[in-house]
Design brief:
Length: 171
């Protein structure tokens, strides 16, 4: 990132190659629409180029990048709500191919449960469980404290257990 700050745009290609798939996955989970997530991924990396001068040398690029992506996702969700559109896509998106019927049912149930969480709780779950971030990293992305990130995650996981409880009884 420091090379990009200095005007070496080949460094951008390296950053894009390393993080684009991860950011797309995060945004897909966040907005529930793979095509829109692709657009938001592009917007996120355009924002990286535009904001390269504001990047603090020696900072953690990963958290900075996820913060930009999280802001793009929040903006998207707000725009959908203003238009009266909820996150229906998350509950109806196609299951991952190559998995058994039980995995498909569970995957769909998890997507539906995630869609029912409050935005802040869903965001923490996606960053922690899907992206493997630590609570310290999540705190930086969400511009909060580590304790607040842990509390939000605890509440989100508890809510997921409540929502998914009947799923375990089906087996």
């Amino acid at each position: 990132m420091e090379r990009l700050r200095e005007g070496d745009f080949r460094a951008f290609d390296a950053l894009f190659g390393r993080y684009a798939e991860r950011i797309h996955r995060f945004l897909s989970h966040r907005v529930g629409d793979a095509a829109r997530a692709e657009d938001l991924t592009q917007e996120t990396f355009l924002s990286v180029i535009r904001a390269r001068g504001r990047y603090v040398a020696g900072g953690t690029f990963r958290q900075w990048l996820y913060a930009i992506a999280a802001n793009a996702a929040r903006h998207e969700v707000r725009a959908r709500r203003r238009e009266g559109e909820r996150m229906r896509e998350m509950a109806t998106s196609s299951p991952t191919s190559g998995q058994g019927e039980a995995a498909t049912v569970h995957e769909r149930a998890v997507r539906q449960a995630l869609a029912l969480l409050a935005d802040g709780q869903r965001e923490v779950i996606l960053l922690h469980a899907y992206e493997g971030m630590t609570f310290a990293e999540i705190a930086q992305v969400l511009r909060t404290t580590g304790v607040a990130a842990r509390v939000r995650a605890h509440r989100a996981y508890r809510k997921l257990r409540e929502l998914l409880g009947p799923l375990g009884e089906e087996q």
